[in-house]
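Quick one, tokens below. Sequence please?
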């Protein structure tokens, strides 16, 4: 199968960026495996899972059906963290998935340490492998825990300079309307409850206690959640700033103590 054959096949199945995807598939696979992957891609199965790796920020990541595919939108969260973390910071990455937020931040800020928290053990193992793949395993502690519950007691109260998180934030009623590729990603990585805000409430109310007095939270949000996060933050006494992504949509919220 030539690259042009693949492009034509993908185009006929309505795949956007068929030329780019044909090149990536032809470079990664050969023979029957390539033909099978092309057919699977034509059903809407994500390119990234077929390749088994994807790129985020300045790093490459192993990806599988056990994790959300790292999104370019999330790079804004890493950019802000890299700028704002104080020297030698210890930070939490809640809902770490592939580990991309923790790992890319650790790579850019070699003076920092992270605890990467995830609910599913297979996903956490993947995050740990991505830490090793990118040379930051010695500064990244994987932790199996439920972010919708209180943090494990052995985590030090006041022990972290920042909480970073890209939690599940899609409203339950929006889930069935997602594009076909997204339907193959883990539901648990996407759904944030009836109003999409379950994880933000738990992070602020339960995990915020782990921050130092000057500690801050940087959270990815949905394009229509800026106002809601400002309200949740204000109700709890946080100073809130919303940052927009390159598309002009609200994407990251910074919550800092009011006294700063
Ligand atoms: C939106 S994905 C983000 C993954 C990664 N941080 C990123 O930006 O690509 C959310 C992650 O939270 C995990 N998760 C879901 N429910 C959780 C819970 N109750 N506690 C901890 N992690 C959870 C999912 O398994 C998934 O890996």
């Amino acid at each position: 199968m030539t690259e042009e054959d693949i492009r034509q096949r993908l185009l006929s199945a309505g795949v956007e960026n068929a030329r780019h995807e044909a090149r990536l598939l032809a470079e990664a696979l050969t023979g029957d495996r390539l033909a099978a992957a092309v057919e699977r891609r034509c059903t809407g199965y994500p390119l990234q899972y077929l390749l088994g790796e994807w790129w985020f920020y300045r790093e490459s990541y192993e990806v599988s059906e056990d994790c959300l595919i790292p999104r370019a939108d999330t790079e804004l969260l890493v950019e802000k963290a890299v700028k704002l973390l104080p020297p030698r910071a210890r930070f939490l990455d809640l809902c770490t998935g592939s580990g991309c937020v923790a790992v890319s931040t650790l790579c850019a800020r070699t003076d920092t340490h992270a605890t990467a928290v995830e609910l599913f053990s297979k996903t956490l193992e993947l995050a740990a492998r991505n830490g090793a793949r990118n040379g930051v395993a010695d500064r990244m502690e994987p932790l199996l825990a439920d972010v919708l519950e209180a943090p494990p007691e052995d985590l030090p109260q006041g022990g972290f300079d920042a909480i970073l998180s890209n939690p599940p934030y899609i409203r339950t009623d929006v889930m069935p309307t997602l594009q076909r590729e997204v339907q193959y990603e883990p539901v648990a990585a996407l759904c944030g409850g009836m109003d999409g805000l379950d994880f933000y409430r738990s992070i602020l109310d339960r995990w915020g206690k782990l921050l130092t007095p000057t500690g801050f939270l940087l959270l990815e949000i949905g394009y229509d959640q800026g106002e809601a996060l400002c309200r949740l933050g204000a109700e709890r006494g946080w100073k809130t700033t919303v940052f927009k992504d390159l598309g002009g949509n609200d994407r990251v919220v910074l919550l800092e103590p009011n006294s700063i």
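The mean pLDDT is 96. Residues 72-257 form a domain with the Rossmann fold fold (CATH 3.40.50.150).
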